Amino acid sequence: MEFGLTSDQTMMQESIDRTLARVAPLERVRKSVDEPFARDVFDALVGLGLPGILIPEAFGGLGLSLLDAALAAEMLGKHVAPVPFVASAVMAPLALTGAGTDAQKKTWLPKLARGEAIAGVAVSEHASGAREKAQVTARNGKLGGKSLFVLDFNGSDIFIVADKFGDLHLVDARAKGLKKTLLTTIDATRAIGELNFDNVEAEPLTGGNGPATLERMIDAGRIILSADTLGAGERMIEKAVAYAKDRKQFGRVIASFQAVKHLCAEMAAELEPCRSLIWYAAYGFDAQPDQSRRLAAHAKAHLSEIGPFVARTATEVHGGMGFTDLLGLHYWFKRIGFNRQNLGSPERARNDAAIAQGWVGN
Amino acid sequence: MDLSYSPEYEVFRQDVRAFAREYGARAPRSFGFNEESRAWQRLLIEHGYAARTIPKQYGGFGGTADILKSRILAEEFIAAGLPMGMANQGISMLVPTLLELGTEEQKQRWIGPTLRGEVIWCQGYSEPGAGSDLASLSTRAVEDGDDFVINGQKIWTSTAAQADMIFCLVRTEPDKPKHEGISYLLFSMKTPGIEVRPLVTMTGRAEFNEVFFTDVRVPKKDIVGGRGQGWLVANATLKHERGMLGDPNQAGTRFKALVDMMMTEEVDGRRLMDHPVYRDRLLKLQARVMAMEYHGLRLLTASLKGEDPGIARLIVKLMGCELNHQLAGFANDILGELGILYGHSPHLRAGGAWQTSFMFDLGLIIGGGTAQIQKNIIAERGLGMPREPKVAS
Fold this sequence. Notes:
The complex is a heterodimer. Chain A is of the alpha+beta class. Chain A is built from 12 helices and 10 strands. Chain A has 3 domains: 7-113, Acyl-CoA dehydrogenase/oxidase, N-terminal domain (Butyryl-Coa Dehydrogenase, subunit A, domain 1), CATH 1.10.540.10; 119-209, Beta Barrel (Butyryl-CoA Dehydrogenase, subunit A, domain 2), CATH 2.40.110.10; 211-356, Up-down Bundle (Butyryl-CoA Dehydrogenase, subunit A, domain 3), CATH 1.20.140.10. Chain A has a 4-stranded mixed β-sheet. The radius of gyration of chain A is 20 Å and the shape is globular. Chain B is built from 12 helices and 10 strands. Chain B starts with 6 loop residues before the first helix and ends in an 11-residue tail after the last helix.
């Protein structure tokens, strides 16, 4: 009985932390606004094997667990890293290992693992519900319709697309009839977009059960976004505490005022149990797959409540400075806001958890 | 990460289950200050299911500390519906304090009878003028020959009416700085000059008492840790209390009852579970219950490894008590008007326990270090923020 991290896991996390502190300081993150994503930051993470963290060793990846991926995601959130991860390193590899044919695995997994290819994932309609009447239809190997809020959109070589029945398809990003529209969001550190399909050639993923694999992809994605929020929230608390210890008003540092201390204590008290919830959900994804829908939905919903609470409170502790672009605190604020809405807002995720427990019908 | 138990522990679990089958019928119907409960307590000590780590020479089982076994024990007793060993203030707070700081004579004399439920203790800490600022307490103990003569008042004293003895903080050195003038005394509640008045709370029950001391003469030798050392001794005791409050197992038990209620109670002929707004609130609470349960696993693992979990430990009282209060409040809400019924009213649900808990939990949020004091502790010890500057006096 041990509920904690191994020394390998702690070391891996520290090494990602150090690398990102070096290659992705806020000044670097700011510049990425005009790029598809921060290629140099991504390359540094390739050096640590991050794009292949879940990909089996036989295909050139690290073959680690979702808990390891979540620990990595926590660091990406902490440094608001402007790189693909949730789709390209987590959901797409799970799609390929779960439902890809041998040929598809052999073609794409090694490339994804080496960071030579990026994969976007179009599953929003299944995770969040369809907006703007979006849906994807498949007929005779051709896709029609549209999908919104496609994750890791920029620089993608392929897209994994779920059709309206939850079957999965692999689409070449340069395929004829595929129209790609980048959507502008609050969060400049991640790219999300829209795919319109006009009779687009696609390879179906026929090596496994599509809808079952899709559920696993969404569960994993939810856990990863939660972990990203955890990291972003941690950094916001650190920044708020540091600022309060430095800033003086009424002749003393504001960290000595109980009104300020209590805000910081509330943030820490709310966020600390979230770490345990994410560890358990990520561990459960591999160890208790029959529980993973409930665990992932709860991690996603709870972090989507606590994350924004921390984001606004940390901003308030910074006073007027928290509100400025100069300080850049808003990069974390917006990252957390992005995570909250994506792959199922909290109400949606909680309803999924209720269904998973048989408390209410589908 | 590995949540399975090794074979040694699975064997222990089977032993506990066998015990539950064989002796379950002897469990007291009403667990409290009665012979049936004391007999149960003795049976538990004999099997190592209570007072497990207390040395044999002081009346304990003499086993080694094993947090996993404690956890398995709790799981199995809850599953079998059996009461755990006694957890009164004498056992939970005084016994660990004596083991740490008591003299050999004090250990021999008090630990055994306390463990067996033969001596009931109450705690004399808070005073009307000394709550969060406990060290400003003013109950005086003046030396007179071999005795101290005590005058003053204590408040929030649970079980004072049933108690045989009190462990009490008194000011013996009034001229010293406030933290250095306090002593920790043990004396009999039967001593002349002690008056206990029940303190009725908002629940309508007297869960606490006020205790008045008028020229109470007690032996000087029954001091723990020496004169003027009382503050250090008390802090050793409070450490044990903060671990006691905010128990996450309680939240899990309450949550199960809430789910049952959502599945069985109806409004307008529909199950409460089928109302999306209620259901969403239930699920919100479930995430918190899960987070605190897993948080408990994390703290457990840290103790197994002998690591200090730091801030993760400091938040437990604040978050645990608040969660329990919210669970009870939610139960009242989903019951609608049924939720305000109380006492022996017709249509009352769960014997009125949800309203009682809702109110009593507020007492727990305040007691044992208020939520605001907890936040100061989290900020100062957990986040390294400075203390409020002292007001010049």
